Amino acid sequence: MLFGDSLMAGYGLPQTQHLHVILEREIKDKNITFINASVSGDTTAGGLARIDWSLSEKPTIVVLGLGANDMLRGIDPKVVKQNLDLMIKKIKGVNAKIILAGMISPQSYNTEYKKAFDNIYPDLASEHKLIYFPFLLDGVALNPKLNLDDGKHPNAEGVKVIAKNLSKYILQAYK
To answer: Which residues contact 71 (CB under 8 A, 6 or more apart)?
Structure first.
């Protein structure tokens, strides 16, 4: 299950180019079915509000990729971490493996905010012993050739890069 925001939901792309579809193609030999439970615009508070309903699908692996919209709105990193921590506990409660897909704050944020936000994901991964993908947009962020015209969301080629990067962590969880 992909549980994230627009970066994983397929914002601005046709269904055939959504991350879950590309991942199914990328990992075709394992016959894994992906559930796209990502919602564009979602924050960690929104994710926390809908996690129980999404977990009723009984996923065996959850890729948790929320927090980018919180950061864009300047939400206190302590709140973001608390919301993610509660979601992690709920996911663990249904015995699903978790891949935490990290996000990093841009340099334009003040140093204190950036440091606090950037530490959320590695801290949670360490505390909960999770499979950790440090930056969901690794190799895609700030590359105009891999993003839509808004410069924030991956285009079809950017989704392929994310899928290639993420598939290694999914295969690790699949073992």
So the answer is: 80, 103, 105, 109, 117
pLDDT given at position 28: 82
Domains assigned to the chain? 2-174 (3.40.50.1110)
User: What is residue 175's predicted lDDT score, i.e. its pLDDT?
Assistant: 79
First CA to last CA across the chain, in angstroms?
16
Non-local (6+) Cβ contacts of 140 within 8 A are: 146, 147, 154, 158, 161, 162
Residues taking part in catalysis: 6, 150, 153
Write out the H or E segment, with its range, that includes residue 160: helix 156-174
Q: Quote the strand ranges of 8-163, DSSP E.
A: 61-65, 97-101, 131-133
